[in-house]
């Protein structure tokens, strides 16, 4: 805990020397400077503590400094046409969502690369690589979460947080109703799948008060908006995997549905209250019961259902926000255990030094498995994070 204390002091020092402006360079071009290009750096630097993972029996504490996110983004706009490009670099990550490894892998990737065109408020098109339209939490901006991060169990099978494809979306009825439809690659490994099919997803929400009308959501508006939003989505991809890979039989389809609710309400002189909850079901036709199921059917990102509830309170005059998160998941099969139950609890605080542009987050979390296995045991974590958007 002495290391954590030193990190807190370091963050305080950063706050003292922070400049008054946090914004990447912006260029204008074209007639009357109608075009715009903006470059940003987005970093989330963490000190992670895990009460397992080291020592001869992997029972000793593990600590690590590293980046949770380390990105450079470029956004451009000219009239109704826009682009968004974002890269990310990660290296030597030791402490993962559920395990501790030697952390020898490095990765540089094109995280986002998209073309955007707005015909009008009711019809817009997005093409390229971007976030698919299923769960609210995956669509929430990574730099504007309510808690430390999104759920590590929210990801859909056979895809990461982004996918490549085309989406249409828009706002109707004075921005109260929003629809989204997308056609994405889904599973890319066609050689191992029964067939090569696209993944189709539809999402809609109704939103009230100040409302949410953008493509991305936020986990909190820090008391600047009054919002109530109810959303739902459905996704399908046929013949995504085999329940019996050895014999290439028992093809299964991917189907998923979700519902979510978000509310944030500031009360003058009292503070801001936030509630966010969701449930999601990922169905792979019980392929985990097959004789030789595809690896994507089982495990953390395989067939499962569950959800989360997040609550928060932000002080009225001080940019300090306290939060709590509870998750409950049922995984079809994980490391030799059928119907594995996972409970995840976490609580902490956000201190907004310059809004989301300079923020300190501290979170303590506990993960409990209904049946511990060789690779998955209960653990506690403590994470201190400094976020900079510049």
From TrEMBL:
Q: Which domain of life is it from?
A: Bacteria
Arranged from A to Z, the UniProt key words for this protein are:
Signal
The protein depicted here goes by the name Phosphate-selective porin O and P
Presence of the UniProt keyword Nucleus in the record: no
The UniProt entry, under Gene3D superfamilies, shows: Porin
Q: Where is the signal peptide?
A: 1-23
Q: Which organism is it from?
A: Desulfuromonas acetoxidans (strain DSM 684 / 11070)
Q: Which InterPro entries match?
A: Porin_dom_sf, Porin_O/P
Q: Which Pfam families match?
A: Porin_O_P
Keyword NADP attributed: no
What NCBIfam families has UniProt attached to this entry? Answer: porin_ExtI
SUPFAM superfamilies on file: Porins
